[in-house]
Design a protein that fits this description.
With 258 residues, the protein is mainly beta. It has one domain: Porin. It is 11% helix and 63% strand. It has two helices and nine strands; from the N terminus they run αβαββββββββ. An eight-stranded antiparallel beta barrel has the order 1-2-3-4-5-7-8-9. A hairpin with a 5-residue loop joins strand 2 and strand 3. The N terminus is likely disordered.
Length: 258
């Protein structure tokens, strides 16, 4: 309910401002309103266990002498489910140009790395998994050019950016290590499962966006969106890393207002 109220407030705020601007000047008009949902693959450059552990607050786990390197990484995951809601405005003199403003919610970002050494079941087998989960709230603006094909199909492409704040994060550390810092008897090893609060962070991305839309019921449009770009994540009191938006796929449903 709290998130829905935030979405509703944002939509009302943008709508009121857009209508006010439209009444004050005939240069722009509110074009479309809609929602979009999908998933991103947004990966920090050189993603590893050291980076994820540095994003944890009050880390009580010693990571300076861990035996794992990039060669022992067996799995990696950077998964972000996305939801957007927003409005588009169009200049009257250029109906195929569109400025799209959205509220972006990422409710379950996951960054995970998994390492293994030795063979499972052997005396020297060790493994480590670091999994960071958080939420992001962001504002997004995209400049798009549209091309109409017939009455139903439209193609569009452009450039966009978003500014986000990551919060409510947790860093989970689990594994089996033959290490004096973990076990009193390193030869036997010890399994562990630890959880820390994650530092909040500021995120920004710059991306190219393209897509296609199909018009139905006169004013409704179902669309497919694709984004690729670069950005950065800056943890408060922690590390800053460049990020690569390898792909962002989504489906949209928008209503033509003018």
């Amino acid at each position: 309910m709290k998130q829905f109220s935030t979405f509703l407030f944002f939509v009302i705020f943008i709508a009121c401002n857009a209508v006010a601007q439209n009444e004050a000047s005939t240069n722009w008009q509110v074009a479309r309103f809609g929602i979009a949902t999908g998933g991103d693959l947004d990966m920090p450059v050189n993603l590893n266990h050291h980076y994820l552990l540095k994003t944890a607050n009050d880390l009580g786990f010693e990571d300076s002498n861990l035996p794992f390197t990039s060669g022992e990484m067996t799995r990696m995951n950077c998964d972000n489910g996305t939801f957007r809601i927003g409005l588009s405005i169009t200049p009257l003199r250029s109906p195929n140009t569109e400025l799209q403003f959205s509220f972006l919610d990422i409710s379950g970002r996951i960054d995970m790395v998994h390492y293994e050494l030795g063979s499972e079941g052997s005396a020297d087998y060790q493994w480590l998994e670091v999994n960071a989960e958080n939420k992001e709230t962001a504002l997004e603006a995209v400049f798009l050019k549209r091309h109409q094909t017939g009455k139903r199909w439209s193609w569009y492409g452009g450039l966009g950016t978003n500014f986000g704040f990551s919060h409510s994060g947790k860093v989970h550390v689990k594994g089996l290590l033959l290490d004096d810092s973990i076990s009193d008897n390193p030869a036997s090893g010890q399994e562990f499962d630890l959880t820390y609060n994650q530092r909040e962070s500021f995120n920004q991305r710059l991306f190219l966006q393209g897509g296609v839309g199909f018009r139905f019921l006169k004013r409704m449009e179902f669309g497919f969106e694709l984004r690729k770009g670069i950005g950065y994540r800056a943890s408060f009191g922690g590390p800053t890393r460049m990020t690569i938006l390898k792909r962002s796929l989504g489906f949209s449903l928008r209503c033509q207002l003018s």
